[in-house]
Amino acid sequence: MKWFAWYVPPRLDxxxxxxxxxxxxxxxxxxWQPYPINSETEAWALPIAPSRMDRSLSTMLENLxxxxxxxxxxxxxxxxxxxxxxxxxxxxxxxxEWLSVPWVVARGQADCEDLCAWRVAELRLAGETRARxxxxxxxxxxxxxxxxxxxxxxxxxxDPSTALGMGAT
Length: 169
Fold this sequence. Notes:
Blueprint (H helix, E strand, L loop, with lengths): L1 E6 L5 H15 L7 E4 L4 E6 L4 H23 L11 E2 L8 E3 L1 H7 L1 E2 L1 H14 L6 E9 L2 E9 L5 E2 L1 H4 L6
Parallel strand pairs: 1-5, 4-6
Antiparallel strand pairs: 1-3, 2-3, 7-8, 8-9
């Protein structure tokens, strides 16, 4: 079982909890129930069985995109990812935090799923409705490594992680 921690904006907490609760119902009930883990940071833990990871990943990414779109609508403008001063940063091994836009801004850095969910939300709200998160995976030793990128409406692939410092020396 792998646990994911989700960080959502304070004003959207109850709306987001309902969204991931409905996700839980669609994806298999009690195994998928989100658990609040920190009321001060609006963090939720979500357990995922490895056998469901690929299917779950698409749903989880779409939910993070929707949360970011809700946030941009609430504040009344879109914050462009590439001009926000955000850098790519790898998470600690064994830790997987899914950060919505306000948390990425507060930290000044994020990893691939956070950056892609931000960028896809930005593109969709700017009219590119077919933009989506896209992933690749590869097995390294006994660990499956996923990398999230943006698939644009025209089918091209954009990698915010690389654009924001991944692989830089």
